[in-house]
User: Fold this.
Amino acid sequence: MLNTISISKIKWFLTLLILIDFMGVATVVVIFPHLFLSPTSALFTHYWSEGARLMLMGFFLAIYPLGQFFGAAILGKLSDHYGRQKILYFSIAGTLIGFILSAISVMIGAAILLFISRLIAGLCAGNVAVAQAGLADLSVDEKSKTRNITYGQMAMGSAYIIGPVLGGVLSNSKMLPWFDSSTPFWFFSILLLIMLVLTKVVYTETLKEKIAVKLNLSEHIKDIYLAFANIDLRFNFIVWFVFVSGWWLFEAYMPAFLYQKFIFNTTEIGNLLAFNGALYAAFQYFVVRPTTQYISPRMMVKGGCLLAGLAIMAMAVVTNKFQLYIAMIIFVTSMGYAIPGLITCISNQVSAEKQGQVMGMIGSIQAVATVLVMLSGGFINAANDNFTVIGGGLLVLISWLIFLFFYKPIPMSLTKHKF
Assistant:
């Protein structure tokens, strides 16, 4: 039986693990434009055109969420059978190997090794799902479970504020002469090594009862099929798919856009992303939460998607950094309403006992949309550095139009959907 001190230590260990995982993701997004597009990058010879490098960057960005798509489900299920501690240990070790290989690949200029390392890191990123399951294990009732899960959400939000700044600083040789693009990978390797030791020292098994599991790699794919096959929910998920596609087509290639159009260095990109993360978190807490009692989810989507789409497209025509930040503020605050509003609208279409399943479908569709736009985004950006911005904004506006004409709320008495 765990005592209060042990429970507190485990909570903070799991929160720290989630923070480090997401900080690593945020850091990579910041340094990728320099790694792929800089003429001095050791990964490619000068014979590679910028268009070819952009296409490759799309593949390298996509391989991580693709690995995560399958890895999260596999590691989560294995932790139900073998226990949280054992799976956390092996997944952290795998992530550590991925980051070490990434650092080496940058140092020696081996693009193939970088690709393999990002796949390994993506597959092992499922340790976030295991960590969240561990936080749920420590709960004694529904209220404490909600409170424990917020530790993970807090860590995720903080990671996207700290990670980009950290990536910009650690890769900037002006800070220290020996800093370069491999330094962030070495830094996170050290952090992961510490977490590996702490897994044995601090973490006590939280799983109360181990169960037999059957791995099914097609489970996520089945969720996606069921989402679009349900006639009552089909248009809701189409809206979500188009919305996420536009959001991530812009978001994933925004660092490259800033690097190409505004000549931002890694530090400036990191600062802007950190500004976005801090603004989004503050807006959610101080504005969205208090106003949800007055604004319906439908109105949140209608206003949020419209303004977000227009703000994204405006970035293609702004001419200075001041205008860029104004457009970015409108985008971030609009998304603060659009994202929770759209998820709530979909959630309200099903009964209480189907909430877990529909949330899983939302996550699966988001993962697929993210991978697809990251793969195609490189080709789009190679044609013109404004196209990912214009295309992202246009897709968000299309999702707004579909929602406007096809969304019909279902009365609670009719939400007993079968998937």
